[in-house]
Amino acid sequence: MDLDRVSQWMAAHVPDFEGPLRATKFDVGQSNPTFRLDSPSGAYVLRRKPPGVLLKSAHAVDREFRVQQALAGTAVPVPQMLALCDDDTVIGSMFYIMSLVEGASIVDPSMPGAAPERRGAIVSDMIRVLAAIHDVDLEALGLSDYGPPGNYYERQLARWSKQYRASQTEDLPVMEALMDWLESNMPPDDGQRTLVHGDYRIDNLLLEPDGHRVLAVLDWELSTLGHPFADLAGVIMQWQLPPGDEGRGLAGVNRSALGLPSDDAFIDLYCQARGIGRPSGFGFFVAFAFFRMAAILQGVKKRALDGNASNPQKALRLGTFVPRFAELGLEARTAHG
């Protein structure tokens, strides 16, 4: 990345900016490369589309910028959006600049070393923020056109099936079985239509270093208008994975001893926060969450094989989990009520 060109562009578009720049690439994220920028005028974050040929509608950093800019001042904490560059000639792809939020990033949802009281308080604030995302006034924020109309899950199944086919590298019967089941068991549209983050989990949040409050929700690439249970099921899906930095789940963990809620308790607390009834047939939503993540990981694997992944070695390792996610999706069909 040509930092001189970035500095020149920021001088013209970011108020009070002063160069020169020093860049450090964050080691997180497999989709849109993200960098910390340090300069005499302060610290910033640059998030860009990856180079190379990309799947249509993927890596939409302009949508990320738009939704976070719209959420400024709401109950949903986001970094301050400073400028969007849609001129590919500057660094070779679209990018945006946002403020740096000095918060703690937690990868493992078991939160090793934290006191049980703090763990519980962090999860409670995760629920508060998730409810706030789903309760924003779309019309007031200018987001009523942020996603197409119609049955969200029908649309999403079609989209991610297409994305999976476009990045498929081998035949996986278990993935075919999961897609067939989801298509045959599609729930009717219940009319719920909210802002959906698309990848809501603890490692996409910045937290108070010594407290429990969520300071910022990051990584809005998959956000759209849709069904709120997609985000809720995404959290539950993540917790079914093995614990540790790789799986980032809670499978086999004694949650009660750690001060963490069960799946059912988390779902109930979320519904209480939004004043809605507990959903029935929640297994479908979790199964779909596993399917979508499998499709995403397949895309990560394909980018690594094509030579344009943000972290090629990690991308190839993540790609090996695609069949396991499909298996877990099939297992989730009858779980969670």
TrEMBL record:
InterPro entries to which the protein is assigned, alphabetical:
ACAD10-like, ACAD10_11_N, Aminoglycoside_PTrfase, Kinase-like_dom_sf
Q: Where is the Aminoglycoside phosphotransferase domain?
A: 24-246
* SUPFAM superfamilies tied to this protein: Protein kinase-like (PK-like)
Q: Which residues form a coiled coil?
A: none
> Which PANTHER family does the UniProt entry name for this protein?
AMINOGLYCOSIDE PHOSPHOTRANSFERASE DOMAIN-CONTAINING PROTEIN, HYDROLASE, PUTATIVE (AFU_ORTHOLOGUE AFUA_1G12880)-RELATED
The name this protein carries in UniProt is Phosphotransferase family protein
Natural source organism: Thalassococcus lentus
